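Lab notebook, design round three. We kept the backbone fixed and only want residue identities now. Task for the bench partner: fill in a sequence for the structure below.
Input structure tokens:
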């Protein structure tokens, strides 16, 4: 690793101070992505701002029809939360399927969405229910938050505080996982919300995305059969050593149907 300064703030304001005064500083949550990138010298921050000691970022709670999850809640905590299980069981199942036990006990929801790995699970959930990302300075709709491969709408020095999920009427998430990493080759979240049906895909492209044609079909009839012939264009999808674009396009349709079945119970 390269040399860096280490800071451990005890409040959001203190963390923001460190981040804004050091343009090359990075916030450290669970460290599952950032530390690995630093070891490979793919990242070289001048300062690490360890936000792990900020207790206010760990809360999980249900208020009315909105589930709030603090940025520092680990995947294991999301999976085990009674509030999550009761309000959005598909989200608890999603969290339980991330990585392995060590990753789930260290990785955080805020770190995951800030990193925006193309194959991460949470972006599909945020897009799939129309969640909002509350930061240290504003609220960003999920539809505007994920902007590209490893890119988000976060400004320099801006810190994720919590994610607010409107509780859907029904929701299901299914992924076809890469067996070694357990990342999604393709993952699909489908939900019926107060604002309509939403379908979000992760693992297939440079960033998670919604499928409007499937949403429209499922709005007419919420059943797997109505999307069986809908296909996402392969020319917009990723090809790599694990799966080419054509295979991913096929998987989107197959996994979306399974997600609808999961939502129906």
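Proposed sequence:
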């Amino acid at each position: 690793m390269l040399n860096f300064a280490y800071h451990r703030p005890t409040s959001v304001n203190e963390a923001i101070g460190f981040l804004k005064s050091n343009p090359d500083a990075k916030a450290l949550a669970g460290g599952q992505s950032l530390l690995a990138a630093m070891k490979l010298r793919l990242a070289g921050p001048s300062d690490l701002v360890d936000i792990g000691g900020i207790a206010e970022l760990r809360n999980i709670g249900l208020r009315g029809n909105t589930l709030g999850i603090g940025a520092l809640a680990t995947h294991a905590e999301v999976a085990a939360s009674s509030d999550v299980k009761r309000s959005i069981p598909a989200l608890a199942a999603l969290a339980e399927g991330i990585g392995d036990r060590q990753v789930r006990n260290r990785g955080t929801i805020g770190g995951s969405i800030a990193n925006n790995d193309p194959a991460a699970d949470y972006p599909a959930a945020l897009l799939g229910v129309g969640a909002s990302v509350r930061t240290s300075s504003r609220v960003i709709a999920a539809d505007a938050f994920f902007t590209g491969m490893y890119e988000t709408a976060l400004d320099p020095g801006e810190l994720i505080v919590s994610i607010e999920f409107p509780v859907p009427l029904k929701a299901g998430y299914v992924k076809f996982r890469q067996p070694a990493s357990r990342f999604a080759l393709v993952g699909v979240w489908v939900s019926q919300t107060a604002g309509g049906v939403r379908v979000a895909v992760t693992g297939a492209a440079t960033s998670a995305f919604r499928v409007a044609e499937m949403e429209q079909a499922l709005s007419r009839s919420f059943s797997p059969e109505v999307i069986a012939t809908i296909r996402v264009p392969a020319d917009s999808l990723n090809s790599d050593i694990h799966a080419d674009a054509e295979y991913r396009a096929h998987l989107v349709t197959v996994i979306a149907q399974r997600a609808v079945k999961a939502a129906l119970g």
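Keep this in mind before ordering anything: Residues 170-264 form a domain with the Enolase-like; domain 1 fold (CATH 3.30.390.50).
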